[in-house]
Design brief:
This protein has about 100 residues and is mainly alpha-helical. The chain contains five helices and two strands. The protein has a two-stranded parallel sheet with strand order 1-2.
Length: about 100
Amino acid sequence: YLRAARSACLLHPPGDRLVHQLKYRGWHALARPLAEQMAALALPADVEEEARVVVPVPTTAARFRDRGYNQAERIAREYARATGRRLVPALERASAAST
């Protein structure tokens, strides 16, 4: 079950621009600093004790074909590295949602 979720940043300037560059311009190097910023934020103590894995949100097959990567997976991988947790691709996208 889901006990906590993290966002790379607030989606207003400059965070929204950073996420846009990662998603649509292929600025893959942004994944690490965004993930490190997430890792620096403390989880609630009860969640921290239970948090063992990092699960990225899957993208659609069409988005993956267009971009060649999943930006959420890139950030999740770096977050897992920064926190010493294991990355587990446990979710499957059931349908495409408009963004």
